[in-house]
Design brief:
Layout: E1 2-3, H1 4-7, H2 19-39, H3 49-62, E2 66-67, E3 79-83, E4 86-88, E5 102-111, E6 114-123, E7 126-127, H4 129-146, H5 155-168, E8 172-173, E9 177-181, E10 188-192, E11 209-212, E12 215-217, E13 223-225, E14 232-234, E15 240-242, E16 245-249, E17 254-256, E18 270-271
Parallel strand pairs: 7-18
Antiparallel strand pairs: 1-9, 2-5, 3-5, 4-14, 5-6, 8-12, 9-10, 11-16, 12-15, 13-14, 16-17
The chain binds 2-amino-4-trifluoromethylsulfanyl-butyric acid and cobalt (II) ion (2 copies).
One cobalt (II) ion binds near residues 117 and 244.
């Protein structure tokens, strides 16, 4: 996700793409989704996040694609893995996942220059009911955002739908990171805030490509950045969840580029 302070410096108008852009994004989005599908059986107690990162990188390279995050602004890994109170941009390494953890894995691939960016939640073994509930709320929040996407709607309609639902479930929406335009560029205009007011923001037009990627906390919304310069965690140490799709605005609605071909995008979390 883009951090908002940085993205404010972006200028210029929002790109509109034609059929070849949609074709390219379908291929990139599908491979990104397949990468997350591939990881699912490996997300078990004891696996290190570094091992999952290696598997993702090998999968992407084996499919003739490039890992977009590797080398991006000095990031040295293929995916971000964000367990429990990590909000986003967790750096894979020696940490082993444990029974009961929830974790987001976020992958971005480049296929023929097009970026496919998606993330979803995984449960490690059986998790606490409140953790499962947070994951379900986050998934539904993304669905509510997606339902707003059609020509003539505004980016603020997406944010408002997400915020209203999340807060109605007594959770909070992270403010410091947002969704973003993408295509041949990884992080582009427009910003897609996951909170806000209906009728505000950029007007959606056919051919716009962007992500929706709400981060939802069980506690309060403030986050802090760890000393590694990447890892964002909840200030109150409450659990956080996220899910992300890359989408295009069509003539009458939305096309989701990062649908799992095997229907695995919606997490099936087991509870203890
Ligand atoms: N995939 C993230 C997003 O949703 C971006 C990660 S950038 C990285 O936009 F450098 F941290 F990998
Ligand atoms: Co993104
Ligand atoms: Co992402």
């Amino acid at each position: 996700m883009t951090d908002i302070l940085d993205a404010e410096y972006r200028t210029g108008q929002i790109k509109l793409h034609g059929p070849e852009g949609f074709e390219g994004m379908r291929r990139a989005g599908r491979l990104a989704a397949e990468c997350l599908d591939m990881l699912e059986p490996h997300v078990v107690p004891g696996v290190t996040t570094g091992r999952l990162d290696d598997l993702a990188r090998e999968f992407i390279l084996d499919h003739g694609a490039l890992p977009a995050c590797l080398g991006y602004r000095g990031y040295t890994r293929t995916v971000c893995i964000s367990p429990n109170h990590v909000v986003c941009h967790g750096i894979p390494g020696e940490r082993a996942l444990r029974e009961g953890d929830i974790a987001n894995i976020d992958v971005t691939v480049i296929v023929d220059g097009w970026h496919g960016d998606t993330s979803r939640m995984y449960g490690v073994g059986a998790v606490a009911p409140r953790a499962k509930r947070l994951v379900d709320v986050t998934y539904e929040a993304l669905e509510r955002g997606l339902a707003q996407v059609k020509p003539g709607a505004r980016t603020g309609d997406i944010g408002a739908a997400i915020q209203q639902y999340v807060e109605s479930m007594r959770c909070s929406v992270v403010r410091d990171f947002c969704g973003h335009g993408l295509g041949k560029v990884f992080h582009d205009a427009p910003n897609i805030l996951h909170f806000g007011q209906r009728g505000t923001g950029d007007v959606l037009k056919p051919g716009m490509f962007f992500t929706i990627e709400p981060m939802v906390n069980l506690g309060k919304h403030p986050v802090k950045l760890l000393a590694d310069g990447w890892t964002a965690v909840t200030r109150d140490k409450s659990l956080s969840a996220q899910c992300e799709h890359s989408v295009g605005v069509t003539e009458d609605g939305v096309e989701i580029f990062t649908v799992s071909p095997t229907g695995r995008f919606r997490p099936e979390i087991r509870t203890a």
